[in-house]
Amino acid sequence: MNGTVLIGLFLLALVAGMPLATALGVASVAVLALAGFDQLAVPTNIYAGIAKYPLLAIPMFILAGMIFERSGVAARLVRFVTAIVGEWTGSLAVVAVLVSMLLGGISGSGPADAAAVAAVMLPSMVARGYPKGFSAALIAAAGSTAIVIPPSVALIVYSVLVPAATVPALFAAGLFPGMIAALCLLAPAILISRRYGFGRDYKAERPPLGRSFIDAIWGLLAPVIILGGLRTGLFTPTEAAVVAVAYGIFVGMVVYRSITLRGLFRVLVDAGELSAVILMIIGIASVFAWAGNTLGIFDTAAKALVGLEASEWLMLLAINLLLLVAGMFLDAVSIYLILLPLLVPIALAMGWDLVWFGVMMTINLAIGQFTPPMAISLMITSRIAGIGMEATFRWVIWMVLAMGAGLALMVVFPQIALWLPARLGYL
């Protein structure tokens, strides 16, 4: 009964147009009141939900991503990758995917990655004959891989909720699947561009490789410093986020001199606002998860699903479909907080590795970031392109299928994710 009320009120609040955090809070408070719990459990669990040391990395990586976006790193990476790829039919589409993958190793946030690449690349792509809808769809899809490629904010949240999966293990496990998911997008990018002749009639001078590399070296060093420091044990994932911020400020204010003190203040304000929203959702969703666990709702549901005695592959298919649909409507952090109490017991009952399960889950949610109707990354790139989201629909489906193929590859061959963390001694 309490489970029906909890889920029912949550869905009803969402349909009524309440913000996600409010919907979670209303449902949780109502069910706890019906069950006779002291309402002091609400603020206690909100605090407990966000008072976790690893979560300090979230505002830091968000800030680092914004600093690198506004310091001109993205523009220099585009020039460098263009110098490598060259100028040919569809070349800018390839550049967009590769630059998004590189920036994913800095920002850890899909929407931030998509916004940075779109701001730099959309004008050039449109000027060379690429439709706005295609360009926005491709950049949104490529940018979404940032939540899989380390340092990933989403994987940090997963590690907090699933302590058996450590951040270093998740980061190592996400590297190859994230790169494969991004590289899978090259197939539709090249085939569609060749089919319609995008960029065929535009010939531009190829940037000099040496000079472009020198200009981009500070941006290329960022993921090396972050991941190298983690691997050598020089700093923890949370400390790595602080190092990324310090490095970004140095590059933006000292090396490139593209960020002023006033600009830095604006970046701090914007990063603070976004971080506050994410942490508020985490805090209130913690109450929702606590209510579900305390009342035995999630355990009962998990046992019921396992009791169906479905095959492992059927269960995997069902979970992936659930995650894909959920990703269309909610952000990754919220889905972790809502669904992990249900899914982790199922994963344990099935004998699945929780690190592999976390990466699989995250790729699903990355696909959801550019799949309508909500599609936060697609919303951002469409807004920057000055078009309605419906203009991207005919192109998005090909991106979804391509990244879905990368996901299927990782599901069928778990060692794609597990080989590197095992090799590095994290498993």
From TrEMBL:
GO (cellular component) term, any one: plasma membrane
Where in the cell is the protein located?
Cell inner membrane
Q: Which GO terms describe its molecular function?
A: transmembrane transporter activity
Q: Does the keyword Transmembrane helix apply?
A: yes
The UniProt entry, under InterPro entries, shows: DctM (IPR010656), TRAP_DctM (IPR004681)
The similarity annotation says: Belongs to the TRAP transporter large permease family.
What name is this protein filed under?
Answer: TRAP transporter large permease protein
Q: Which organism is it from?
A: Pseudothauera rhizosphaerae
